Amino acid sequence: MSVFKGLYEYRELLKTSIKKDIRGKYKSSILGVIWSFLNPLLQLAVYAIVFPLIMKSNIPNYTVFVCCGLIPWTFFSTAISRTSFVMIENANIIKKVYFPREILPISIVTSEMVNFIISTVIILAFVMAYGIGFSWYIVFYPVILIIQYILLIGISLLVSSITVYIRDLQHFIGILLQLLFYATPIVYGLDIIPESFRWILKINPMSYIIDGYRSIFYYQKMPDFVGLGIVLAISVILCIIGYLVFNKLQKRFAEEL
Amino acid sequence: MENNYSIEVQDVYKTFNVYLDKANSLKEKLLFWQRNKKEIREVLKGINLNINKGEAVALIGVNGSGKSTLLKLMTKIIYPNKGKIITNGKLTSLLELGAGFHPDFSGRENIYFNASIFGLTKKQIDERVDKIIEFSELEKYIDNPVRTYSSGMFMRLAFAVAINVDAEILLVDEILSVGDQHFQEKCLNKMKELKDEGKTMVFVTHNLESAKELCDRTVWLHQGVIRMDGNTDEVINEYLKETK
User: Fold this and answer.
1) Is B62 touching A (CB cutoff 8 A)?
2) Which of residues A1 and A44 earns the better pLDDT score?
3) With an 8 Å Cβ cutoff, are B75 and A98 in contact?
């Protein structure tokens, strides 16, 4: 419980660092805003052009299909790769002032979430442009979002604290994220994967989250709440483990950095 | 009974691993595992110290005696290997001034950011911001980016923030040398004021004059143990005898 007390006492720091992070991104230039849209859009263009060429896919509205997976994935992967740097970036403050260290990864994940919510406009625009329209299932968007957020908090606590001790983890994480990208049904549908490999997708929590977003925007059906419920349970457990590990490791941050 | 103490240091030991050539990455750890020589340096060896509420204590000692380490342990930036440190009340440390300052932001924005690192809420900062600006004497420049400040201005702003946090315990590391004579005196007066308000203070200092002026009690650290603890004048006399 002391976790929440500490975070509450330092809520202003949490707020300012989230604001600073978001403002830094969109600061002063319109280009900043454009970039944060352009990046996923260009990526989307690449996948939407390349994959139908090399793969025989019979997915209707393939661009929308990829879009629904790619945008949440970008949220996931940028949040994780950024938290692997966060302690080293802030070494200066960590060595000199006391504050609850978990504020740093939490503020990164939160500001990336805000960024994702803004980027959701892209999904909505594509859904409209392709004439798919909206359904009332969109009300489940916040539910899936919160599950993804909790999952990311758990992972970021682990990643941010372990990288202080093992710096190379940053590079592994980059590779791991790339692998995971292909182990998640983002650019392809579940049906093209041979039965013998489907277990990989089944143990990957991001599959359920991506599938959730896709259900509400693309398929316009009820998300798989059993799967999402399991992901939620795993995420909560991950948060607890993450916090315990973080708490143990953070005691020597100032010495190791 | 217990609550009469602001800071309780119970049998604290602290060692640092000093890597002569540190292998930071996994590659280096695997390739040069034999190179990873480390020296274990014992900095504090069994410190017991109770500081009462409202007491102003100076920590003195030669370089490397563990004064700053003890202070860092009190702020929870680092943790002891053995023993326990209990602090009662809101604590602010002035270890290094302006640690969280962002050079591109204005002085005013940095006040908000820095004060939030000390755990203040927006409302509390709003109440204090004028006082902070006034104390720093930077009214004209407060909306300029901090990178345009001279080092003296920078220090003044940082000190003004830290001193106005209204903590119950104030830990200060060798910063009474901020700014010019006039500002130093102002700091000293502010410290005295805070002391009269009943705040607990711990100073690490080499300036024995200011220690005499501010503190009733002085702790002399020598090679990681407490050599002497008592009335400031007596301890400083002994200390001077020893070091001369």
Assistant:
1) no
2) A44
3) yes
